[in-house]
Amino acid sequence: MDLETMLSYEWGAMMPEFIILGVVTLLSLLDLFLPKQYNRKSLAWIALAGIILAIITLISLFDLEVTSILHDTFRLDSFAKAFKLLLLVGAALVILLAESFSPKEGMAENRGEFYYLFLAALLGAMVMSSSGDLITLFVGLELLSISSYILAGFRKKNLASNESAMKYVINGGISTAITLFGMSYLYGLTGSTNLIEMSGTMSAVFDGQFQYLLGLAFFMILVGLSFKLASVPFHMWAPDVYQGSPTPVTAFLSVVSKTAGFIILLRIIISLFLMTPSDETGALTFLERNSDYIGFLAGITMVVGNVIALRQRNIKRMLAYSSIAHAGYILVAIAVLGYFTFDAVWFYLVAYLFMNLGALAVIQLITDKTGSEDISRFAGLYRTSPVLAVAMAIFILSLAGIPGTAGFIGKLTIFMGAFSADPGHYVLGSIMIGATVISYVYYFGIMTQMFFRPALPTEKLKVPGGIMFVLVLCIGGTVLFGLAPNIAFDFLHTNFGSFEDFLQ
Amino acid sequence: MSSFILPSLIFSPLLGVVILFFLSKNQEKAIKIVGFLATLPSLLLSLFLYVQYKAGTELSDFAIKEAWFTFGNLKQYDPKLFAVDFELALDGFSLVMVILTAVLSTLAAIASIHIKKEWKGYFILFLILQVGMLGVFTSQNLILFFIFFEITLIPMFFLIGKWGYLEKEKAAYSFLIYNGLGSAILLIVIMVLFARTGTSNIEALRYIMTVGGVSLIAPISGVMKYALLIALLVAFGIKLPIFPLHTWMLRVHVQAPPSIVMLHAGVLLKIGAFGLIRFGMGIFPQEFQKIAIYLAILGVINLLYGAFLALIQTDFKMVLAYSSISHMGIVLIGVGALNEAGIQGAIFQVVSHGLIAALLFFLVGVMYERVQTSSIDRLGGLAKIMPLTSGFLLAAGMASLGMPGMSGFVSEFMAFLGLFKEEPVLAGIGAIGIILTAVYLLRAVLGITFGTAKQPVPLPAEKSDIRAIEMAPVLVLLLLIVLIGVFPSILSGPLQGAVEAIMIGIGG
């Protein structure tokens, strides 16, 4: 590759990534050379500025046609734009949470590291959403994972945090190996790592013997990626890691990292298996024939997440199981694969971003203050700080999928997909609704604490500016997209159409 | 200008919510007055609608329809596909329900003077509950209906769980889970219909299901129709409630504060009946015909089960709770009869029981306020210290057992008339329930007012009868009950059109 070809690429398409990369470099240098007594807290603002700049550049790229550079390893299509926007907005909110985080231990001494590791993870996720090649996809995934491993063990002197980081690394290693193993079969079959070329080879011919190899690869990849989604069978790490990590890291893992998981899942399985025939006639594609297995995983994930959450007393653990359940809901949208899949996944992730980050913001505040994560710490919150209690109530209602909130519309979109298919996915839809009703019990358990129980004798909570901002934005998003979902849908459709360019 | 009326009718209570936000939580009197006043605009507007209707204005003039949101990006093919509009409208049936809701809300706001704590939160939730109830009866598409339906759920959970009696939290949870399940089933039905037909508009769905000939997104088979109808019956059966899905409702009746039970027994249970008639009969008329007989049987079971158990209760609230189950049986009997008299009777019973149950629970609240118990064993001879209250209680009891000249008689008479035409044997068995009703009500009411208590509770020494402000709701309710009993045409007039439309759908 000579200089001329290098220059002929439209590097502008990669601008948001470059900005984040620049900020990561800047922050790591600053952290290294700044004097020890300098408070690293203010580095958050640089990180935030970088993210906002990246958002602005990304928005300015919306009008750009599908751009693919570096031999199609990096492509900027509607899918990449739409999901990158989610990642960046989520990241900006997490940075704000981290800025206001003042725990007893852990964050204080190496705060600087937190910011650049976090941005590095974000960069990995962004690369994933834009990659058209298994290699870049995998590099993005590893960048995200390795940064997350370190973040999970951030409270160096805390036993629980160390344990959770260890579990996370081991689980992550195994799952990555499984994914990679699955990918290797696909490479062997097609002789390429470029997703479009691979899809072309796979859909061109049908050979009955390949079906088993394809099946093996499909399941390996699906199972391996469930780690990032925190869905069954690789969900066991989530409760421990969510509980052991500092709350901003929990927020990152449950929102940004999960979004990234869905991005890579959609990228791989839709680009590769949607066009692949499953028999000579080509009546059913491979994905259609095997989508029941995704549905099966989705069903177990929803039930496991919600049922185990019932028994939790630790609020972060409870939220971990709830986030497992939510991954199950989104998997339903993928399993029923149809016209509404992209809409449903995107909208649900938007709703989830606001409601989950909002809930975690309140949790961070309470657990910081009281030093305990027991659910009883929420007792009488309505009396001591009514605004906070009402905010939390809104997030919980949205997580429970009550009308008037974004969570409800998200669930409706998923049901639309499930029931408009022919034959309809009634069993999966019913499991999802049943699981939602189960979730009422623990979600309203928090409500009971906040509104019915007498208050603990505590001093008044002071809400830091950063958290205040996150709360306002999250309430705004949750309620606005709940009452006027057309804003989000119109935005999606005017800017990204129906993701027609996903496979081109 | 008429397009403003329905939205302001439904959302005007929110005005009160906004004002309440600015009041300090200790200003008890101001909060109660604002809470009461905030229910008035809806009441006045609903009465205005009734007057307009009487004057000959078409109710469809008040309908509004605004684009709200659309699923998917299919506007270029068909702008109506998967669109959810914000559409409200009225027909005779919903007009009656809206007036019932508005009247009971205002009266329940008066009954809320007995609330002892946290008036601000109470009235905010109360007013949101009212918005939900009013919205349910006027929504013209299923998604909107469901949203309002769920809006009633959350305030009720808090109102029961925070302001109720001893076992309030258990009652609140059991309310939440049962109704959550009911809503979940309802949501499945709604989403299946919406996703497969592409519309959630009730009129459009009625057309698609009965007339057909419209190309659908995905087919709805005959079996599927039955499945959907039965799911609807279960969903609304929980709300109504139909035996054996009733246990949650007993807890709520006993544990919730009386002002909330007025709304619960008076309006919320009726949403079940409303849904059965509007959606069950309206959207699936042919299938409904096939299963109507089972509904009538369930109705007789409800009627007898409720009546028998009401006979042996020792708590007056429990008597009334079982009496509600028993009376909802009559609604089912009317619906199951599936002829004009039956359906008229069912709707009459919905309204009449709404008023009577509200009256009885209001009086229970008044009584409880003064003697701190509602146990029949511990109460007796209340006529001495509360002569007026006791008198009203007797009147309410008479209304409930269906004395001629009061609304209960009209509805029971019509419902049974309907069933006797179709299934005389079943109706004969059901008629036992009517006799039992008289027995259990007189036993309870007479025991409390004139009888002697087994373990008497210390009664207040001097007279402590119903106050003037408490008298107002009682008089209004009694007046309405007698009015409907004497001039049934004030109800049957508006209902005529709606019932005829249903009959045409069934083909009778």
From TrEMBL, chain A:
* Biological processes per GO annotation: ATP synthesis coupled electron transport
Q: Which GO terms describe its cellular component?
A: plasma membrane
Classification via Pfam families: Proton_antipo_M (PF00361)
Q: GO molecular function: any one?
A: NADH dehydrogenase (ubiquinone) activity
Q: What catalytic activity does the UniProt entry give for this protein?
A: a quinone + NADH + 5 H(+)(in) = a quinol + NAD(+) + 4 H(+)(out)
Q: Which gene encodes it?
A: nuoN
Instruction: Indicate what this protein is called per its UniProt record.
Output: NADH-quinone oxidoreductase subunit N
Kindly state which keywords UniProt assigns to this record, in alphabetical order: Cell membrane, Membrane, NAD, Oxidoreductase, Quinone, Translocase, Transmembrane, Transmembrane helix, Transport
Membrane topology classification: Multi-pass membrane protein
Q: Where in the cell is it found?
A: Cell membrane; Membrane
From TrEMBL, chain B:
Q: Primary place of residence?
A: membrane
Cellular compartments annotated:
Cell membrane; Membrane
Short name of one Pfam family: Proton_antipo_M
Membrane-traversing stretches: 6-23, 30-51, 92-112, 119-137, 143-161, 173-195, 207-238, 259-279, 291-312, 343-364, 385-405, 425-450, 471-491
Which terms under GO biological process does the entry name? ATP synthesis coupled electron transport; electron transport coupled proton transport
Swiss-Prot/TrEMBL keywords: Membrane, Transmembrane, Transmembrane helix
Q: Does the keyword Transmembrane apply?
A: yes
> Which part of the chain is the NADH:quinone oxidoreductase/Mrp antiporter transmembrane domain?
139-426
One GO molecular function term of this record is: NADH dehydrogenase (ubiquinone) activity
GO annotations of cellular component type: plasma membrane
Superkingdom, taxonomy of origin: Bacteria
Q: How does it sit in the membrane?
A: Multi-pass membrane protein
| NCBIfam families given in the database record | NDH_I_M
Which family does the UniProt entry place this protein in?
Belongs to the complex I subunit 4 family.
| Record's protein name | NADH-quinone oxidoreductase subunit M
